Amino acid sequence: MDLKKYERKHVHIKDIYGETYSGLAAYGSAEFLECEYGGEEDGIFIEDCLIYQSQIESIEEIEVHGTAELWAGEMILRRYVPEDAEPLYRKLGTDPEMARYSGWNLYGTPEQAEETVRRFIEGYDDPHSYSWVMDVDDVLVGTIGAYDFMGDQIEVGFSVVKDWQGRGIATAALRSVLEYLTDNEKIPRVTAWCAAENIGSRRVLEKAGMKHLQTEEKGLVVGDRAYDRMIYEFRKEDR
Fold first, then answer.
1. Which runs of E-coded beta strand occur in 111-210?
2. Radius of gyration of the chain (CA)
3. What is the number of alpha carbons within 13 Å of residue 170 lying toward its C-beta?
4. What's this model's pTM, rounded to 2 decimal places?
5. 62-79 per-position pLDDT tens digit
6. Does position 113 have pLDDT exceeding 70, yes or no?
7. Are 200 and 207 in contact (CB under 8 A)?
8. How far, in Å, CA of 130 to CA of 67, rounded?
């Protein structure tokens, strides 16, 4: 049984004890598992569970939709949980830059953060609602989502914690989400926008493979400021 081919795939496992596991698989080689856990064979991690090859009765790749857990480099894109509200408020809600080019901050108060997380979690029942937390080694480093599904297109947006900006986090997350939305969810067109002055976001969109379509002069009004609004799109055939 070649477990390595299931690395970063969504799988369903039944073990020899009758237990079942479903989720995003991480492959562990015999060498790694022997060093870390004292094992002597390959295995698969699903969340915090380790199933050794000799314990696996059957394993199959499964089809997933909606906000499925995704890999983005060494980062996991996962669903929100209620416990995310506090770090979201602390890391994003208190950052004045969050609202500079949008005019809003979904995590601006502890109550707002709790309500936003609750709304995202409830939205997981909708197969075309996509809301992820960027997670590096169990540390919340940002958020990314896709909204306003219109049959043949959807819009993406993202936020990265200030201390993690400039490390390629947003670009990796966006690439993973664009691939998932177009390949797995069969949504042909993904759009995004940003203020022309927001150089960081422009670079992320372009590095991830999105194409600049047009610029709306003074199309983004935030308080008493008006910014040029840049529109981007991504199509599967553009890759």
1. 130-136, 139-147, 153-160, 189-195
2. 20
3. 21
4. 0.85
5. 888 899 999 998 899 999
6. yes
7. no
8. 5
What does the pLDDT read at residue 239? Answer: 63
CA distance from start to end of the chain: 33
Parallel, antiparallel, or unpaired for β 153-160 and 189-195? parallel
Element (H, E) at 82: none
Which of 25, 30, 16 shows the shortest CA–CA distance to 60?
25
Locus of tokens 């970063």: 8
Mean pLDDT value across residues 89-93:
94
Contact predicate 224/100, CB 8 Å: no
Q: How far is CA 235 from the centre of its chain?
A: 18
- Hey, CA dihedral for 30, 32, 33, 34, is it positive or negative? positive
Which residues make Cβ contacts (< 8 Å) with residue 18, sequence separation at least 6?
none
Exposure letters 126-159 (e unless 16+ CB within 10 A, then b):
eebbbbbbbbbeeebbbbbbbeebeeebbbbebb
Q: Which domains does the chain have, with CATH numbers?
A: 3-61 (2.30.30), 70-238 (3.40.630.30)
For 36, phi then psi, to 5°, come to -90, -35
Q: Kindly state the helix (H) or strand (E) to which residue 25 belongs, with its residue range.
A: strand 20-28
- Cβ atoms of residues 44 and 13 within 8 Å: yes
pLDDT at 163 > cutoff 90: yes
The rounded distance, in Å, linking the Cα atoms of 129 and 106 is 17
Distance CA 161, CA 202 (A): 17
